[in-house]
Amino acid sequence: MRYERQAIADMQGYSYGEQPETAGVIKLNTNENPYPPSPGVAEALNGFDVNILRRYPEATSRKFRIAAADLHGLTGEQIIATNGGDELLRLAVTTFVPSGGVMGGVVPGYSLYPVLAAVQNAHFLTSSLQADYLLSENIADEMNAKGAKLLLLVNPHAPSGSLTDVSVLDQIAERFDGVLLLDEAYVDFVDPGTEYNALKLLAKHENVLILRTLSKGYSLAGLRFAYGMGAPKLIQPMMDKTKDSYNLDALAQCLAERALSDQLYAQEIWSKVRAERTRLREALQNLGWHSPASEANFILARCPKTDDATAQSYFKALRERNILVRYFEAPDLADMLRITLGRPEENDALLSALADITTGM
Ligand SMILES: *Cc1c(COP(=O)(O)O)cnc(C)c1O
After folding, report:
1. Best mutation site among 29, 83, 216, 294 for ligand 1, i.e. most ligand atoms within 8 A of its Cβ?
2. How far is 263 from 175, CA to CA, in rounded Å?
3. How far apart are CA 21 and CA 15, in angstroms?
4. Going by CA atoms, what residue is nearest to atom 13 of ligand 1?
5. What is the pLDDT of residues 197-249, one digit of tens each?
6. Where on the phi/psi map is residue 195: left (φ > 0), alpha (ψ -120 to 50), or beta?
7. Does 161 sit in the ligand 1 pocket, CB within 6 Å?
8. Does the global pTM surpass 0.90?
């Protein structure tokens, strides 16, 4: 006897990156930030009055929303705070995609999207990426033709790290008949020199929803805090109807607000990550591992072409040396490793391990 719905029985769950219990592991596999949360967060945690936990938390994380609105030049009604970006994605799916409906994205992309579609009994329509991970020019039309109500695009793209121009996103928003969710989980690592700013689309398009998370840029993956930005028309149904009544606990709200206010600290660690990105990409290239230009905190590197040195065997050999990176079984990614940027000494350890493994092959 089975009790779950047929769609749940038939679907595959999300496969998590490995979280080792042991110390001494160099963890470059789940795109976490290698630097600690801001000292202000530690201070807020130490000063937190436990009596606050006696009461239910503020249901909409009002203070955080106001702080985020100030930071981005928006109003509180344009922001929803969520339990990680993953909750916002789930809310977008349950709010905008009917059961049996269609939602879309690109392959390769974030592997949680098709999982959420399956839970909703929705069809996940994929658009193939062009060379260099560029979006198909007709993506909006492809989606409209099948009646997609939600299109999920991660920018900078995961797992390649490549960045799509705002002008391209602008045209997609214009042509697409449903909600365009721009998943900006990695946007904090974009080089300011690119002048990328998708927030300006919000003034122009009522169907654009932007996801931001504190997991990557603010070193708070363990806290579970993210937010969405968009027209009140998109935000209100999620905030008033589909989210859990108390989706964020009082401690998380307090710490998230503090992290967001420590902008100088955040910018400092983002620029350190960027410096390592340039350095590691060049060093990898010298070892024969080529990668597309990344604007994220990871690099997707292609294995040097030798007969028996497959990406998977490098992955295993690194693992034996206590260095974790991400290997994807998907056919279009099978000869690559996704490497999260670590601190300089961690990246150095990775480079010497790669050189060493190559020598031993
Ligand atoms: C990390 C990530 C998110 C959100 O992660 P949370 O920890 O749930 O905030 C969303 N999209 C992509 C592509 C990510 O990599």
Report:
1. 216
2. 35
3. 18
4. 110
5. 999 999 999 999 999 999 999 999 999 999 999 999 999 999 999 999 999 99
6. left
7. no
8. yes
